[in-house]
Amino acid sequence: MTLQGITEDEIANYLVHTPGFFERNAQLLASIQLTSPHGQRAVSLQERQMEMLRDKLKGMERRIMDMIRHSQENEAIADRLHRWVRAVLLTHDDAHLPEVMLDRLRHEFLIPQAAVRIWATPAQALREGLSELSATQGVSDDAKSFTASLTVPYCGINSGFEAGKWLDDTVTSVAMIPLRHTGSTFGLLVLGSPDATRFTADMGVEFLQQVGDIASASLARLLA
Prior knowledge:
Low-confidence stretches: none
Number of strands: 8
Largest sheet: 4 strands, antiparallel
Order of helices and strands: EEHHHEEHHEHEEEH
Helix content: 40-55%
Shape: elongated
Mean pLDDT: 86
Structural class: alpha+beta
C-alpha cells in the first residue's frame, strides 16, 4: 500500500525514528480509532494498546502455570522413581528380584503390564538356581538380535513382537527397553498397555532409558 508514493514501511520507519511526532501532534492519539480484537467495536489507540498488554500478560500467566505444572509432574515422577529404586535395592533375594522390580514398576507408574527376560551373554552365564524363574525362560535368537539392535527403547504398536507374547493378549502398545552390562545385551524389559496411545513412536524415551539403566544395574547381579 502506498500514499502518494510513500509506502507503509517508510511511514512506520519515520514514526519509529521520530519519537517527538506524537508529542507535537498529541491530538492524533485521541482521534485514532482501531477495531478491537474482542469484537467489532471501535477503540482508541491507548485502549488498543492496553488490550494488547493484557493479552500479553495472560499469555505470560499461562506459560508460568505450564512451568509450575511441569515442575510438579517432574517432582511426582522423581518421587515414584525413588520409591521404585528403593524397593529394588531392598530386595536381597535374587529369586524375588525380577518380580519385585516388575510389581513396583507397575504400581508406581500405573503400567498395566510388564515383563522381563534375561539370558546369558558370551562373557557371562546365568547364575545357578534361577532356571525356574519366568524371567529366565527361553528367548529366541531373533528376539536377542532385535534387542541388541536397539540403540534406544522401542515405543509403538505391538505388531507381533515375541516380547509382546510375554504379556496378555489385550496389549496393543509396548515399550521395549534393552538391558546391558559391560557392553553386552543380556535382557529385555517390556511394558505394555491396552491403550494404543500409551506408548507411541513420537514419545520421549529419556525416562525409559533411566529405567533401563537402573533395571540393568540391578538384574546384572543374576549373571555369574
